[in-house]
Amino acid sequence: MFKRLIVTLVLFTALPVAAQLSPSVARSIEKAQTLEQDAKLGEAIAVLEALSAERAYDKAFVNRALGVFYWQYGNNDKAIVHIQRAVDSEQLQDAQAWQTKRMLADLLLIDGQYTAALQYYYPLARSVPKKKTDQAEDVWLRIMQAHYQREQWSKVLSAYPAYQGVVKNRASVSALSLKLGAQLQLEQWRGATPTLKALLKREPDNKQWWRQLAANYVRLEQPKEAISTYLLAKRKGIALEPSEQRTVAQLYANVGVPERAATWLKRLPENEQDAQTLAQQASLWQQAREWPQAVSAWQLAAQKDSQYHWQLALMQIQQGDYQQALTSLDKADKGASAKEIALTKVRAYYKLKQFDQALKQARIAKKIAPDEAVESWLTFLKKRQQMQQRG
Fold first, then answer.
1. pLDDT tens-digit map of 125-157
2. Which of 17, 86, 164, 177 is most buried by its number of CB atoms within 10 A?
């Protein structure tokens, strides 16, 4: 985040020939300015580099001009060298001195020399000239950026109140983003919530802020607020990722609304409808007592993974579809033990009044692992068979 900082350097729109400059230097400055305005930046630099300024103020002014031109030329290293010389000379005064230090701090920030930049920014923030009060906002923003780049999260947050004191309620997206990033790094989830809301006021169509706010509510274990945020984002026309749709489904399940949870899973794209997702959907439909939907989802799950034939069979038996259940049980080789499958077949055949088949399955179950349940079925079915024979 913010790997490329856009730093606004206040450059000379016109290089004033100050009264303090010696005549020869003033003429060279004017010539360099004219060349720069004619897009002859290289020649402008050559004119100033050829100067042999004697007076300290002349040297400082020339270095300042060269620093600006080198920055425009794309040579940040030389720009820093010359602006640094202008600053170190202490010949520039008042607003001109302040602006030159500001330029140096900005160049250092661009160059990734964050600690060095901060050494200038803090004094600059405390001494903004009366005619440049509008720049206090930018200086505090740069301070936040420099600390952010150094991963000094607490210092980012410490600088924010000073920035806010300058801008009042006009905090920029850049400043709020820096504050948010620091809060998230420090796991200050509660503090991040109002920051995200402030960002959404400024950029209501930015899906990143909606997603982060919803995720933040999830971290805070506030499922209802998270659901509301996702729904608001959706109404704003923001398409939710499949992972976010799954999150919404899980949130609905957590707050005891399985029908909506299942509906959100059902809305997932076809390529996201794997066996596990379909099985989860089926379980949710069962919890919601939406039996036809549950059966349909189990059928789809079983088509993709045979282990789900067992759950499908149980659901079909519950719904009285005994013949269909037997078909599913014949394929249920993974979801249950052979004995469980045999006993379930006993029940299905019994409901279909196919007592001979039921007895056959009960005997299979006994061979696998005899117990009281198996013996009860055997006893009952044998008596039933005897009654039929007598009749």
1. 999 888 777 889 999 999 999 999 999 999 999
2. 86
